[in-house]
Amino acid sequence: MGEAELDKISQVINIHADISFYGNAANEALAKQVAADIASHWNEPRASIMLKGEAYRVIFIINGFYASALEDIDVLENTDPRKNYFRIEEFAHGNISFVDGINSNTGYFKLVNLLDNSSTAAHEFGHTLGLEHPENLDIRGRGVPGIMYPRGTLVDPPFQYDPAVAAGLKGGTLNPFLRKVLPEDIESLGIDQLDFNENGLAVIGDFTSVWHEAHIP
Predict the structure, then answer these.
(1) SS3 for the chain, per residue?
(2) At residue 108, what are phi and psi to the nearest 5 degrees?
């Protein structure tokens, strides 16, 4: 979830999101790293959209915070669309990271999914802004996979875990470290359909406001 800010003078739309990380595996350095990873992925295409016949560059401004003293009431009563909350733990049921729905501001991250320049946080952030997994999960012949393709997608060999393995076999599916935010991913956000107020602000995504306890193995 975030807040879109329309700057007509500079012809820029800034997407602001402040992410508070809590949990036993969260810390200040990781919070900043994950936020930087999300911003890097979403700003990489340097994409623009058309708004009322004019091109606007879309810039993602993502801030990460370690919320060591966060309490459930802080999440439940939040009304600021820029604020998102994600628990980070070494263990997660299902062995996956997740958000609490398409258009959301809360979720749960498995620590290992966030390390080594992974695209997991950027993928989940796309869900918070309203993007779903594409319906067609066989994109062989189409090159670089977009950020919203999930694990298990059939891709060209260079984007598999093991390029030498036949598609669909173990190692023959999408390596999520190799997916990227493409211009069409940003187009899919529907920023041109947002209802900007008199101050040039609009909400993108929605409140889920779920406090997560640590999963127990």
Answers:
(1) CEEEEEECCCCEEEEEEEEEEECCCCCHHHHHHHHHHHHHHHHCCCCEEEECCEEEEEEEEEEEEECCCCCHHHHHCCCCCCEEEEEEECCCHHHCCEECCCCCCEEEEEHHHHCCCCCHHHHHHHHHCCCCCCCCCECCCCCCCECCCCCCCECCHHHECCCCCCCCCCCCCECHHHCECCHHHHHCCCHHHCCCCCCCEEEECCCCCCCCCCCCC
(2) -145, 125
Contact of 13 with 191, CB cutoff 8 Å: yes
209 and 78 Cβ atoms separated by less than 8 Å: yes
Average pLDDT of the chain to the nearest whole number: 97
Residues 135-177 pLDDT 10s: 999 999 999 999 999 999 999 999 999 999 999 999 999 999 9
pLDDT in tens, 23-58: 999 999 999 999 999 999 999 999 999 999 999 999
Spatial separation of the C-alpha atoms in residues 151 and 145, rounded to whole Å: 11
State the Cα–Cα distance between residues 44 and 181, nearest whole angstrom: 7
Closest-CA residue to 59 (of 146, 147, 186): 186
- What local confidence, expressed as pLDDT, does residue 116 receive? 82
Whether the predicted pLDDT of 117 surpasses 80: no
Give the pLDDT confidence score for residue 12 in this predicted structure. Answer: 98
> 194 near 162, Cβ under 8 Å?
no
